[in-house]
């Protein structure tokens, strides 16, 4: 159950925040004073506590300090809501244990944050974990934690047994102690997994150890562990690390599976090897829906190959196709795995860039353009004109509307002399 406590003397702000929390899936209780809030916190265990920075009986820093001292509130999310910025008092609140600080006037930011917390706290995982720990007590504690998260756990005391299981299993995460009884150590197990040629060799690995030694940590990262947790293990820390690694690994595997299916669906442009327009239409919706649902940034770029028509006229279409093929292969090597690239028309390439605002997308394309000037696909010099536009959530942009904005910026790049990147800015002149 997701429950929250709001501590605020203002009926207006208390009601406003309660509405946001209920919409995000929380059950909400409220208190008008810090003392009442602490009393309720002692009687109940809340997953989220929000307190005003102008309580009548407590400074926000004092409230945070006293709440953190209560049993079970060491890792609870604690937000301080401020009506007027006061750098000193807000800094004291953070030092006293506040998780984050929000302005009462920025409702949109607060709404996005609460939605993400709700999704994070309520989501159940599914998957298999290989767990190696020779302490029976610690093994029991961590198995309970992992199964509560929805994971299936295969637990072993010896690395030899775990290695046999790993070779015949399909795991989403490995958690192993480094110092183990038996002939094989945890370090040897990590080394064996990373030497595997199959995709199973890329499984995320969390190493645990009671020896918090810096050189040991560095050695483990060199061997290929993804994370390191020192003993004694903090449950909430391990829980979040497990969540991050399992979800990231599963997402990566889903993307690889999707990529394989794309080939069978013939969604690749036969000349460039990039996605074609049909593939762009098919999968762009996922990028846009996730950007809206999770409040993420997203940009679209339109890249036009300068003078491609003249290249075809001077050197022939076969040479032009050779240029496009080498250029397409080069592009795939110089973008992030999460980006989508598609050939829209004869000389136009479309980029969907999740997690990139306008400035970040512009920087990515400018770096690409700089590197492009140093190559000669099919033995020919090449330059591109690029327009970039960022998703406007208030305008409810779609692929079509964002493409039009990026296309306008690309046209401006052509007018500016080609071989440049131009950002689309709302109600402002287009600038290079």
Automatic annotation (TrEMBL):
Q: Is Phosphoprotein a UniProt keyword of this protein?
A: yes
Residue intervals of the Response regulatory domain: 3-119, 128-246
Recorded source organism is Methylophaga thiooxydans DMS010
Q: Indicate yes or no for the key word Phosphoprotein.
A: yes
Q: Which UniProt keywords apply?
A: Phosphoprotein
Q: What is this protein called?
A: diguanylate cyclase
Task: Tell me its EC number(s), please.
Answer: 2.7.7.65
One GO CC term, this protein: plasma membrane
User: 4-aspartylphosphate modification sites?
Assistant: 177
| Catalyzed reaction equations | 2 GTP = 3',3'-c-di-GMP + 2 diphosphate
Q: What InterPro entries does this protein's entry cite?
A: CheY-like_superfamily, Diguanylate_Cyclase, GGDEF_dom, Nucleotide_cyclase, Rev_trsase/Diguanyl_cyclase, Sig_transdc_resp-reg_receiver
Q: Which PANTHER family match?
A: DIGUANYLATE CYCLASE DGCM-RELATED (PTHR45138:SF9), REGULATORY COMPONENTS OF SENSORY TRANSDUCTION SYSTEM (PTHR45138)
Segments forming domain GGDEF: 296-426
| A molecular-function term among this protein's GO annotations | diguanylate cyclase activity
An example GO biological process term is: phosphorelay signal transduction system
């Amino acid at each position: 159950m997701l429950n929250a406590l709001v501590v605020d003397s203002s009926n207006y702000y208390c009601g406003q925040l309660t509405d946001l929390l209920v919409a995000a899936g929380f059950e909400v209780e409220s208190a008008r004073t810090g003392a009442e809030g602490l009393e309720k916190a002692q009687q109940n265990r809340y997953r989220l506590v929000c307190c005003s920075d102008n309580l009548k009986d407590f400074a926000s820093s004092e409230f945070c300090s006293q709440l953190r001292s209560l049993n079970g509130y060491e890792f609870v999310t604690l937000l301080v809501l401020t009506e007027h910025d006061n750098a000193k008092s807000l800094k004291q609140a953070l030092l006293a244990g506040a998780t984050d600080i929000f302005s009462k006037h920025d409702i949109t930011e607060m709404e996005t944050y609460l939605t993400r917390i709700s999704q994070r706290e309520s989501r159940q995982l599914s998957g298999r974990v290989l767990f190696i720990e020779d302490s029976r007590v610690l093994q029991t504690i961590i198995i309970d934690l992992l199964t509560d998260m929805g994971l299936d756990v295969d637990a072993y005391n010896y690395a030899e047994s775990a290695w046999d299981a790993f070779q015949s299993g399909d795991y989403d995460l490995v958690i192993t102690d480094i110092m183990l009884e038996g002939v094989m150590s945890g370090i040897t197990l990590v080394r064996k997994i990373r030497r595997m040629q199959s995709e199973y060799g890329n499984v995320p690995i969390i190493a645990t150890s009671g020896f918090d030694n810096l050189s040991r940590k560095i050695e483990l990262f060199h061997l290929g562990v993804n994370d390191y947790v020192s003993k004694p293990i903090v449950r909430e820390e391990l829980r979040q690390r497990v969540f991050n690694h399992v979800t990231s690994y599963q997402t990566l595997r889903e993307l690889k599976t999707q990529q394989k299916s794309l080939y069978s669906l013939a969604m690749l442009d036969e000349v460039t090897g990039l996605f074609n327009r049909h593939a762009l239409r098919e999968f762009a919706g996922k990028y846009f829906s996730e950007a809206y649902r999770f409040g993420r940034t997203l940009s679209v770029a339109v890249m036009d190959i300068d003078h491609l028509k003249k290249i075809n006229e001077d050197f022939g279409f076969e040479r032009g196709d050779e240029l496009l093929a080498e250029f397409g292969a080069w592009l795939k090597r110089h973008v992030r795995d999460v980006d989508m690239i598609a050939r829209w028309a004869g000389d136009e390439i479309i980029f969907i860039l999740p997690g990139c605002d306008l400035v970040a997308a512009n920087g990515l394309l400018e770096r690409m353009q700089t590197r492009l000037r140093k190559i000669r696909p099919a033995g020919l010099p090449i330059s591109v004109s690029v327009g970039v536009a960022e998703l406007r959530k208030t305008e409810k942009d779609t692929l079509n509307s964002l493409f039009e904005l990026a296309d306008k910026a690309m046209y401006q790049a052509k007018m500016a002399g080609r071989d440049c990147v131009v950002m689309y800015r709302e109600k402002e002149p287009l600038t290079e």
